[in-house]
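lol so apparently i was supposed to do this last week
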Amino acid sequence: MNSRRNFLQKLAASVAAFPLLSVETLASIEQTGSLVQDGPPLRVAIMGLGSYGTRVAEAMKDCKRARLTGVVSGTPAKITSWQSKYNIPAKNCYNYENFDRIKDNPDIDAVYVITPNALHREHAIRAAKAGKHVICEKPMALNAKEGQEMVDACKKANVKLLVGYRMHFEPKTLEIVRMRKEGELGKILFFQGLSGFAIGDPGQWRLTKELAGGGALMDIGIYSINGARYMVGEEPVWVTAQETKTDPQKFKPGVDETIQFQLGFPGGAVASCLSTYSMNNLDRFFLNGSKGFAELQPATGYGPIKGRTNKGELTQPHMTHQTIQMDEMAAIIMDGKQAVVPVDGEEGLRDLKIIDAIYKAVATGKKVELKLL
Ligand code: NDP
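anyway here it is w/ NDP bound
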C-alpha cells in the first residue's frame, strides 16, 4: 500500500515536472525505473576517449545525476579538445601512466573504463585501488577468471563495480521484463537472439585476439547472452555451440567470426542464438511463452528500439540509452538504488562464465554444464 501511495505521489510530482508527457508515459517511465530522483551528482572520469567514450560523453550532457569531470587518455590532443569541449580542468586530466594519482582527486567519484576489452581488468583494478567506483564497458573482461579478480578488487577497495549494460534501463526492454515477471507471457519456453554486423577494417583492435580476447562473441554476441538471461529470467544450466568461419584471413585463430549457441534453462526454456561479424541486419530478440510473445527489432542498437508483443506495439518513449544509464548508475552508486535488471560485477561475471563455456563447447563439440548460482 505504502509503495503504491509513494508511486502515486511521485507520479503527481512528475506530472507537474513534465506537463507535456501523458500520465501513461509517466507511469511507464516510473515502472521502468527511469525517472531519476534528485540527489548529489556522480562525478565521472571517462577513460579511453574513443568512439564509444565520445558517445557517452555527449549523452552525459543531458544527465541530471551524472557529470563528466575528468578524463584518462593516452592521446594528449584528445585531452586538449575534451578539456575545451566539456570544460574539464587540467587537474582532472590523466594518462595511463599517472592515473593512479586520481586517488587524491576529490572531484572524481567514478572512473568509466571504455578502453579495448583486454585492458578492462587492469584499468578497473587500478581505478578501484585508487578508491574510485568503477563503471566498466562490456565485456567486463576477457574471461571469468579476470572478471572474478575485478569483482574481488572492487569489494576489497569498498567501491562499486558496474558494467555498461545500457539495455538494462531501456523502457521497451523493461516493459517485456515486467510482462514476463507478472506472468503475462505465461511459462517461458523459447528465446531467440540474433546479434551481428558485418565488421569493416581488418586492422582494428576488435579483430586482434590480444586486445579483443576473441571475436564477435565478446563484442556483439554478448548482447544475446545477456538478453537471453534477462528475457527468460533464469540462469542457464547448459551450453552447446558451433563455430563457422568463411574468412580465415580476416578472422585469425582465436577471433570468432560466427558462432551459433544454445542455452538451456532450469525451467525448461531453450535459447537459440547467433553471434556474427559477417552479416548485417541482425539485431533481434524473440521471447515465446505459453500465453504470449514479445519481440524487439532492433533489440540492442542505440535506438529507437522497436518492439511488439501479443498485446500490440510497444509504445514506451525512446530516451538516449547512455543518458538514462548514467543517471540510473548515479542513483545506484550514490543512493544504493537497485536496478530492475542488475548491472553489477556479478552480472558481468555471469556473462563471462557463459562466454568461457561457449568457447569450450566450440572447442570440444560437447555440451558444457554451467553453475551460475
Ligand atoms: P575505440 O577504439 O573507438 O576506442 C577505444 C579507446 O581506448 C581509444 O580511442 C583509446 O583512447 C583507448 N585505448 C587505450 N589503449 C588502447 C590500445 N592499445 N588500442 C586502442 N585503443 C586504446 O573503441 P570503442 O570505443 O568502440 O570500444 C571501447 C570499449 O567500449 C570496448 O570494450 C567495447 O566493447 C565497448 N563498447 C560498448 C558499447 C555499448 O553499447 N555498450 C558500444 C561500443 C563499444 P585514448 O586515445 O583516449 O587513450
